[in-house]
Amino acid sequence: MTEHSDVLVIGSGAGGGAVAWRLAAAGKRVLVVEAGPAFDPAADYAQDRDTWESPFPQKKGSKGQYDVAPLQALTPDTQDIRSWNGRTGPYVTGNQRQSFGYHHVRGVGGSSLSFTGEAHRMNPRSMALETNFGVGADWPVSYEELQPYWQLAEDVVGIAGPETDRRCPRNAPYPQMAHPLSYASQRLAKGAKLLGLTVQPNSLAVLSAPRSDRPSCNYCGGCQRGCQITDKGSIDVTYLRKAVATGFCEIRAATEVLKLQTNGDKITGALIATGTKQEVITADIVFVACGAVQTPRLLFNSADEFSPDGLCNESGLLGRNFMETLLFTSTALHPDNLGSHRGLPVDWVAWDYNAPDSIPNMLGGCRFGPAMAESDLVGPVSYATRVLDGWGKEHKRDMRTSFGRVLSIAALGECLPNDKSYITLSERTDRHGLPVAKIHSQLDQDAHDRLRFMASVCRNILKSAGAGPTLEEFSSADAFSSTHVFGTCRMGYSAQDSVVDPWGRSHRWPNLFITDASLFPSTGGGESPGLTIQALALRAADHLLKQSL
Amino acid sequence: MPKLSRNADDARSLVQFDQLKMSRRSFSRLLIAVPAWASVASSASARSIPMIETLSAVVAVLVPADVTPSAADLGVHHQLATLSNTVPNYARMLAEGSHWLEAVSLQKFGQQYGKLHTRSQSLLVKHAFDAPAQTLPSVFINRIRDDTMTFYYQNSAAWDGLGINGPIQPEGYPDADKKPLR
User: Fold this and answer.
1) Which of A187, A373, A413, B147 could join A345 via S-S bond, C-beta 3.0 to 4.6 A?
2) A341 φψ region: left (φ > 0), alpha (ψ -120 to 50), beta (else)
3) Chain B residue closest in CA terms to A216
4) Tens digits of per-residue pLDDT, A100-149?
5) A–B: how many Cβ contacts below 8 A?
6) What is the spatial distance between Cα A535 and Cα A254, in angstroms, rounded to a whole number?
7) Interface of B with A in 77-106 (CB under 8 A)
8) What pTM was estimated for this model as a whole?
9) Residue A208 touches partner B, C-beta closer than 8 Å
10) CA distance, residue B64 to nearest chain A CA (Å)
11) Which ipTM value was assigned to this complex?
């Protein structure tokens, strides 16, 4: 007998987790299938071991497969914004942009397992790029319409944020108090303020006060390695835990969805694989929440006689408008011991240039914040291999006098869509014989201009904070290295120029929703997308409940 | 410098960026494939010296003992040897690099590397670092330098004097907002 659920949710990250909880809490039978494994914080994360400086652990199936198409040639005008290390030289050799990967976690909780907890609303001006600036596309939902869902997400997760958030209007305070800035971050903040930037505590999915059985943060700085003590509000310990507690939600890990199935009128269910076993499961409603790379891949692979170009591709926009994180980081040693290995990864943000029209003479915003942890320069291995040259007794002495003195600042910037950045299917197939996703990424001149601005401000902040010469920089200009990816199933009003409607529902398939960052018509000026993904998912769930299943 | 010979296969770079475990957040180089190098000749007597003895001696030069143990004291040379199982080209690099070091040691000082005075050992390590890029000595010493540092500083016995008392949990850094005591 074929297994049937009211709702099938594919993917258990920010979008999948949020919608699973909202619908299960309303009494709907929800099955969440997750291609990756479940992680046990106590057992799988190494923060209490000598090997704590290792990256986020890999388990069987915890990385999705993808290819990256050959990237663009590097032009001489990007020389000043490339990636390099003072010890080892350029990170990218040759004259072609190179891939350092699409960074994600495939697992129960998705990429939230390795995120730094940033929880940002979109700048309202970033949601109307076409109307205001004649580029990209507008969001088919206003800031005001989404505001109650951002608030709900903040309350569910327990976001800690500042008393006064200067950037986006709010109707209620953050549920938890903002975290104090680390000593090193205070020094960076002072440098930023001297340049006229406005520094405010970051809004973070990290508890500043205990909640339920989860403690408050003890500022170990290890967020990206997996939060062992679960003060970080990743999706597994927030939405998914609450969803399962309703008694109406089952999570099935290590289960891949190979194809969605249709009968011409609606999605009937999915062909899934657990190990070598394949079966069909059916559902009344399907939510796809696999992210901006894997969601279009699943929909392309689900092509059938009714949708020969892939499900939801009547507009031709499936996979198009791929947007990525624009990143620049700059790092130097400070003369003082700041204990910079301590504290939350991004405990403050300067949003001064976040609005799309805030950087002079260019369109698209950015934001700035500390990056010692994000640059992975918070442990002795990184100092020994990336910061300090040499060997022998002198190197040991240098380690003791230098540890804790690294300062790093990062800028994340807006990415505008272009017709050379998109997702297709690759020629390479997975173990089921299905093509994997292929990422095509191209940065246009506007991105290089923005990166140059970001680099300039980063370098000035470091200088202003009293740091010494730069010792390392990392840049999207020559390195494709993206955590936040967007846009490949754009939401909109019209079936001609969008993949899904304002609720994330397919224009073509009435019982198919998408709820991840592939919906985003724009990236914003450096905002982390997780909170907005959750808000859109909660709104879609409520819309569905109002209409009744 | 021993005479160099070139092999067409060696000329092809083996650095595969899709094997990198690097990101802006995590720069673990341990699993990166070893790049190609231009081969060098070595002697039969050099090849008779067990590689692990050479590695033990050279890692102790790269990270010697002072108030904290040397890399050899912590067994890092054995850890390097285990990478041969997972990293492309690593076993060959260790073997050929060790043999080169022993050949130079015998040639210059008439003794195997592990029996030299530390001053002479350091001279040969410096000699390797000064070798042109993409030659065996350079590839060997630079790679084992980084891997030695990685394994060494992943051991809490190495952390005395850095201002950290242990792994980042369970204590964390509750005083992260204060000036560090060290």
Assistant:
1) A373
2) alpha
3) B174
4) 999 999 999 999 999 999 999 999 999 999 999 999 999 999 999 999 99
5) 168
6) 26
7) none
8) 0.94
9) no
10) 6
11) 0.94
